[in-house]
Design a protein that fits this description.
binds S-adenosyl-L-homocysteine, 6 helices, five-stranded mixed beta barrel, single chain
């Protein structure tokens, strides 16, 4: 069993990489892949870069080159729900691309051509295991639901409300759905773990810098606990 772990930013994966044993690094298309063991489980960890294209390229490369059984995308996100405050956790039960939009020609917003899905589903067992692993966190709200991705940092109430209502999504970020899309077409199970770094509103740009580190720490605890439990 090989677990693939992808984070967009250095801060989201550096603690995992520094905890790995038997580490071997390879760089493909400018993306660093680290093979080794974490909590005694075989893993491949990569920092993909920001946005859907980097995320998809990274997931596809990881699948073809390292053949992971599952891929987990870890990181931070903007909350779309008043029930999820900064530091709370979303585990994806599926992903949507909020900026994938051919609605002017009569196609529903977010409908992905070829696979004909708006929401790409995660494996239910994997979602359950990650929700379970997240119980390691105290005083933290953990919700399973839709993660929305797009190539935009969302920092307005209007935009956030539009994504939340159109896709019934819990949080918004910039990579998860691209990784999910790549995994889906390759028949690899995937799930997204995101800690809220901001509320995707008018203060998001300031909150992001203030809380990104605290949020990341929580996702690292979940991943390590998950690896111990499997
Ligand atoms: N400082 C970074 C840019 C961060 S962009 C740089 O140096 O390039 C924000 C990152 O956090 C993305 O990877 C995205 O997935 C996530 N994210 C957190 N809050 C977000 C929000 N409100 N909207 C979109 N993405 C968000």
């Amino acid at each position: 069993m090989i677990i693939g772990i992808i984070g967009a930013m250095d801060i989201e994966v550096k603690e995992l990489i520094s905890s790995m044993a038997d580490i071997k690094k390879e760089t493909v298309s400018g993306i660093d892949f680290y093979q080794g063991k974490l909590e005694d489980k075989k893993v491949v960890v990569a920092e993909c870069g920001i946005g859907k294209v980097y995320a998809a390229v990274c997931a596809q490369t990881m699948i073809l080159k390292y053949e992971p059984d599952i891929i987990i995308n870890t990181g931070v996100a903007g909350s779309l729900s008043t029930d999820l405050r900064i530091g709370d956790i979303v585990i994806s039960d599926g992903v949507v691309q909020h900026d994938y939009d051919a609605s002017p020609i009569g196609i529903p917003p977010g409908m992905i051509s070829g696979i004909n899905l708006i929401k790409v589903p995660c494996n239910e067992e994997l979602v359950k295991k990650l929700v379970q692993a997240a119980q390691v966190l105290k005083d933290t709200n953990v919700a399973a639901g839709t993660v929305a991705s797009g190539d935009q940092f969302i920092c307005s109430k209007e935009k956030k409300d539009c994504i939340a209502t159109t896709f019934d999504a819990l949080c918004v970020e910039m990579e998860g759905a691209a990784i999910g899309h790549a995994c889906y077409i390759n028949k690899v199970d995937f799930c997204i773990i995101r800690a809220m770094s901001d509320m995707a509103d008018g203060s998001a740009h300031m909150d992001f810098d203030t809380f990104v580190e605290i949020a990341v720490e929580k996702t690292i605890l979940i991943i390590k606990n998950f690896l111990r439990q499997i």
